[in-house]
Specification:
- By secondary structure, the protein is mostly helical.
- The chain is built from five helices and no strands.
- It starts with 17 loop residues before the first helix and ends in a 5-residue tail after the last helix.
- The chain crosses the membrane at residues 77-101.
- Residues 1-39, 111-133 are annotated as: Disordered.
- This is Mitochondrial import receptor subunit TOM22 homolog.
């Protein structure tokens, strides 16, 4: 071919109407509808598992190790916190319960003394005696 020559493609030029320019919507094929139904049956976990194939093995192994490490760490922390709570609660009960009971007993004795004074000496005597010692 020489430069400047027009090449005839053999296709005749046809008049184009505006109707021919609008794209037609593709009709749904029965095969595509079946694929859509199969996709709906797939769970999220199955889709995520399928996506793991696009990552290298080293990244998958590192992610697995990190996940299991975090999981075991959370379980260990939960177990430790339960044990620590039990030890702290039971120790505080053993240490502070006798003190609280003794304070309550002292208050009851003081009330009994005041009541005895009131009965023996009259209603104004408990107030006139002043603060208890």
């Amino acid at each position: 071919m020489a430069p400047g020559e027009d090449v005839d493609s053999g296709v005749e030029s046809l008049p184009v109407s505006s109707k021919d320019m609008t794209p037609e919507k593709p009709k749904a094929l029965p095969e595509l509808e079946d694929d859509d139904e199969e996709d709906l049956d797939e769970t999220l976990a199955e889709r995520l598992w399928g996506l793991t194939e696009m990552f290298p093995d080293s990244l998958r192994n590192a992610t697995y190790s990190a996940t299991t490490g975090v999981q075991s760490g959370v379980k260990g922390f939960y177990s430790f916190s339960c044990s620590a709570f039990w030890v702290i609660f039971s120790s505080s009960l053993v240490l502070f319960a006798p003190v609280l009971l003794e304070v309550e007993r002292a208050q009851m004795e003081e009330q009994q003394r005041n009541q005895t004074k009131q009965v023996l000496l009259g209603p104004n005597s408990a107030m006139a005696a002043g603060p208890p010692r």
